[in-house]
Amino acid sequence: MSTKITQDILESYVFCKYKGYLQWAGEHGQLSDYAMFLTRSRDEVRHTAMAKMLAQHHQDRVVRGLLLTTAVLRQGPLFVLEARVEDGPFCLTLDGLKQVPGVSTLGAFHYIPMLFAEGRQIRGEQRFLLELYGLLLSRLQGRLPDSGIIWHGQACQATKVRLSSELRRAAQCLRDVQEMATATTPPPLILNAHCQVCEFRQRCHDQAMREDHLSLLRGMSEKEIKQYSKKGIFTVTQLAHTFRPRRQGKRATPPTQRHHHALQALAIRDQRIYVHGTPQLPHSPVRIYLDIESNPEAGFVYLIGLITVAHGVETASSFWADHPGQELDIFEQFVAAVTRHANVIVFCYGGYERAFLTRMRKVTKHPQLVDTILNAMVNILGLIYTQVYFPTYSNGLKDIGHYLGCSWTDPEASGLQSIAWRMQWEATHGAEWKQKLLTYNLEDCAGLQQVTEVLETIITRASAAPLPRPDEPNSPPITFLQDLEKLSNFHTWGKVPFVHPDYEYINNCAYFDYQRERVYVRTSKTLRKRKTGKKKSPNRSLRASHDLVIVAAQCPTCQSTDLMHGVKKPVQTPKPRVKRAFDLVLTPSGIKRRILASRTSVHQCRTCGAEFVPDEHERLDRHGHGLKSWAMFQHVAYRVSLETIPKMAEEFFGIRIFRYEMHLLKALMAHYYATASQQLLQHILSGQLLHIDETEVKLQRGKGYVWVFTNLEAVVYMYRPSREGDFLRELLKDFHGVVVSDFYAAYDALGCPQQKCLIHLMRDINQELLAHPYDDELKAITHPFGGMLRAVIDTIDQHGLQQKYLVKHHNETTHFFRSLTAQSFHSEAAEALRARLLKYQDKLFTFLHYDGVPWNNNNAEHAIKQFAYYREHTPGMLREQGLRDYLVLLSLCQTCRYRGVSFLHFLLSQARDVDTFCERPHQKRPSPLIELYPEGFSHPYLVHHKKLAQRTSISQSKSKTETSSSEGSPERRSAHELSAPV
To answer: Among 31, 184, 245, 700, which residue's beta carbon has the most beta carbons within 10 A?
Structure first.
C-alpha cells in the first residue's frame, strides 16, 4: 500500500475513483495492447516536446527534476520539466511548468502547468488535471494560473487551455483523494468509458456481474445511477421490474429518440428480444454491409471493408491504405464499387461511416456519387437504440453479434485492439498484422449482416399478424411490446381491427345508434313514432320579439341615394331576405330570451345600376352580446366545455347553437376584448411589481407554453410556442420595478431587480433533506437558513411588507452568505445547495429593501393554476388560435376576481376598460338592438356560419307572409328607422 499519492494515482482517480483506490492499495493488473500503445505514444510526445523546448531555448533556461519550492521558482527558469511537488500526502511529478508574465509572490512573473497527452483530441479529464496542478502550484507562487499548456498528438502540438477560476471542484477532488487514502472501504464501483483501457477491466467487470450492478448497462451515466439508488434500485434485475408498457393516446406526440434502460434490463432478465414500436427497413435486391477502420491518432481511414449481396450472390471487398496519402484512392475505389449497382442500400453500424463520407465529399471529384451513397445509407445502430432491445449490456456490434451466434477469429478483437494492430503493422510492416486487420474488418461486416437479417425477421413477424406470435424454432425469442399493451389493456375504446371482413360488418351492425334507428324502430312504437315524426329546427319555431326592416341609405358603389328596393333576383343566385338573431337579456330577477327578425330586400341603384343587399344585413351577427357573454362566462369562469354549453342553451332557452358556432363566439369575444387585454399588460408593466410564471400546454400539433404576468390587481396570460425567454428582454425593457419569479434561467438575463420565490427554494431544500436524511453537512446549511428566514417571516406577519421594518434583517443575511462562502463540504447535496444559494444571494432577499414586494411567487402560481385546471380537461385538444382567444378572456376573468368585481357583469356591460368598469361596476350601457360582425374579422368558422344563416334565411323567406302576424304582435320598427348605416 502506497503512503504517498503519486501522479499516477491522482490521474487514475480523475478517470475512475475505484481505479485510483486500487492503485493506491498496491494492486496491479494486466495492461492491454492498446493501453501499452497509449503509454508509448505519451512517452514519444514527452520526448519530442522536451526536445523542442531545448532546441528553441538555451539549456540554462530549462531545468529538470527539481523539487519545487518558492525559492526555486524565484530564480526564474523559463521551463521546469519533470518538477516534483510535495504537499502533505501528495508527492507528484508534474510534466512541466512554463514562465509567463504576471504579478505573483515570485515577482513580475508566474508559472503555468504543462501536460503531455497522447491523444489528438484534448479530453475533459486532462483539462481537470491541469486545474489540479494549477491549484497545487498556486500554493507556491500565491497566484492561480489562468491557463495551461497541453502537448498532444503525433505532431506534438502545443495547445493553450484556459483554466477555470473556480477552485472549489479541484479543491474538493484533492480532499477526496486524501480521504480515500485514510478510508477503510473503497469508493463505490461504477463502470465507465475508461474501463476499455483500464488494467483492472476484467476484475471490475467480474465484480459488477456478481453484484448485478447498474453500471453494467452501457450508456447509463453516473448521475442516473445515483438517482436510481435514491429510489432503492441498485441492480439490473431491480430495474427490470420498473418498466411498464404504456399505451399512447390518440393525440400522442411523435415518438422521440429515447432509449429505455428499464426495458434493456427487462430484456437481460428475461433473455428475450423486446421490440418497442414498429421498426422499418428499406428493401432492395442489392445490399452492401460497410465497415471502416481508422487510426484516430493519425486522423485518417486506412481500411474500408464491405460485403455486397446482389441478387443472392455475396462478394467481399477490402480497400487498404499504407499511409494517409492513399486515403482518397481507396475512397474512390469504394465509391466505384458501390455505384456500379443500381437501387443499392448501404448498411452501417453507427454514425462514423456517414461522417467519413461527408468529410471525403469535400475532396472527391464526384460529390454527386457520394450524395447518392449518403441517401442510400441506413444506420442499424440508430434503429436498435430506440426500438429493438437485445438481451445484452450494450448495443455494441460485438455484444449483439455474439448473442446472435457471430464469432471473431481473435477473441480479443475490438476497435481499440485494431488500433494496436495497425501500430504494429506500421512499425514492422508484417503481413500477419495486415491479415489480422483485414479478417477483423470483414468479420465486422459479416456481423452487421447477421444483425440486419435478424432485424428483417423481426419486422416481418411484426407485420404478419396483429395477435401475439409464438417463437419460431431456431430463432431468438422475440416479444413485441404492442402485444403486451393489448394483453394488459384488452378493454379499450376505439375501432377494433378485424381480420375477416364479415366480422367487421357484423360489428358495425351492433352499434347503439344503428340498432335503434334500423332494428328496434321496427318493433317499438315509441321509437317508430319518434323516427317518423317531423323534425323541425327549434330556432325557426320561436316567436320573434323584435321585427326589423333594414333599408340602405346609399349605394356602396357610387354613393348615390337614388335607390330602388325589392329587385327580384334569379333563382340560381338567391339572396337572403330574412335573418334571425338570438340574444339573452340578464336581469336581477332572471334571464329573458330576445329574438330579432331582420328583413331586407335586394336594392338597385338607379344611377349606376348596381344591385346589392345592405351591408348591415350581410354582417348581422346571429348571436347577441348577452348570449355570447353568458356562454363565455360559463366556459371561462366555470370551465364548462364548448360541447356542453349548446346543450344548456337549448335546454334552458330553447336556442340551438351549433358546436362550430361556439368557437366563433369565443373568437368574436376575444376580438372584442383584445384591446382590454393589452391595456392590462401596459398597466402591469407600468407598475413597480411583476410576477412571472410559465407552464407547458399540449396542442393538437406539438406543444407550447403559457406565460402569466401579474401583480396584485391584474393578470395577463400570453401564449408562446417555446420556453425561450428572449422576448422578455424586449417586453420588459421599460419596466423599472421588481420581478418576482422562480429559478428558471431565462429570468436571470433581465436587467431589473429580481426576487426569487423562496417557497420554491424551501420545497427544493425539503426534498433534498428527505432524499438525504443522514447528511449532516446539508443540515448545517438548511438549519441556519431556515431560522433566519423564519425571523423575517415573523416580521412580515407583524408589520407587513414594509421596508423600514424588514431592513433590520439585512446584516443577518449578509453574515449568513459571508460564512457560507468560506465553508466547503464533501457532500454533493450540500455543495450543490451551497453553490445555488451563493449564485442567487443577491436575489433571495431583495424584498427587504422595497415596500410591498412579496417574498414568494404565489400570485403568479395562483394565476397559472387557473389555466392548469382548464388544461386538465383539454389534453392535446387545443389549437393555437383557440388557445390565444381563451387566454384573452381568462386574463379578464382573473383580473375581475383580483379586483373583486363580477366577470359576468363586466361582459354584459360591454365595457372594454376594466379600470373604468371597476369605478362604476353597476352602470350598464344600452344594448344595441342589432349587432354586426366586425369589419375585416376573419375566422375559419365564419364561412360555415354565414352559409348556415343563408340557408335559414332562404327557407324563412319562402314561408308564408302570415307567419309574422300569427306570432302575435312583436315589436316592429319601420324601415326609415334603419335607413342609415348602423
So the answer is: 245
